[in-house]
UniProtKB/TrEMBL annotation:
InterPro entries: KH_1_KHDC4/BBP-like, KH_dom_type_1_sf, RIK/BLOM7. The lineage of its organism: Eukaryota, Sar, Alveolata, Dinophyceae, Suessiales. It comes from Symbiodinium natans. One of its GO terms (cellular component) is nucleus. Keywords: RNA-binding. This is Kif7 protein. The keyword Signal does not apply.
Amino acid sequence: MQRSSPNTGHALPHASWICANAGHERRSVTMPSVQQEAEWHRPPPGIPSPSQVAHEGATHTPSPTTLTEEAAPEVEPDEHKAEQASEATSARSRKSRGLPPRGLARPARQTDSNRYWCSFHLQQAYTQFAVVPAIIGKKGCNTRAIFEKTGAKIRVRGRGSGHMEAASGREAPAGLMVTVSSNSFEWDGFVEAVRLTGELLDRVQHKMYEMTDKHKHLGELCWQVTLHNGNTHRLAAGQLVAEDTGEPVKLQQGFGILGSNAREAAANPETGKSQWPASEQADVDVMATGLAR
């Protein structure tokens, strides 16, 4: 049975009435299907069509995962282990050379103004009798032993020392001396190094006295001791004593006002300003000339 539209009188397409279940009427309506050849209405200018939006979004929009993977490529396990091993080797190498780890600033270099030093000024005439090798010892064993025990540097410098200054590449034009130097925070090691150096010079002097009586005419091997604080002393029996009284002295920690040229003669002998008195220098030159003949 077909029903007609009350307005037009035409039959509704694809509509049917089914009678069932004791005369009751059930209606089943099938809606018209969209024809495949129907065209979409063109969107207003400037607005893309739905199909165009879907196509461009699927092909040209990168995902966050893709960006992350491209920015941080994954490191292979073997390459990561090799990189860690290389860094560990570099750290051990820097530590063995006394260098700070990477990223840390190097400590400030100690200068003469914040270092302790003590210079033992020696009679220049003793250079005629191989006094420098006697002080240093075979292959530097004497001075190296003091350094290893105290951490202080021991250097024989000046004319006749054989020590070439780094700045000039020549011996310092000052008189012969043995200089003990140490960092300002190593006071105990510095005091011990001064004591051991005084004892070393006393042994060397007695050894030379035993070799020949001529050395006794030269007098004391060390004629003066100057310190970083400007104090001056003498060396007697391997100990520092006051110049006027001969009483043993105790080193004083700290820095005082230096004399006019005490620093230049002791800590910086390459300046060429010698502390040797003119009268004593003339006497030593005469003795050295006579002994050399």
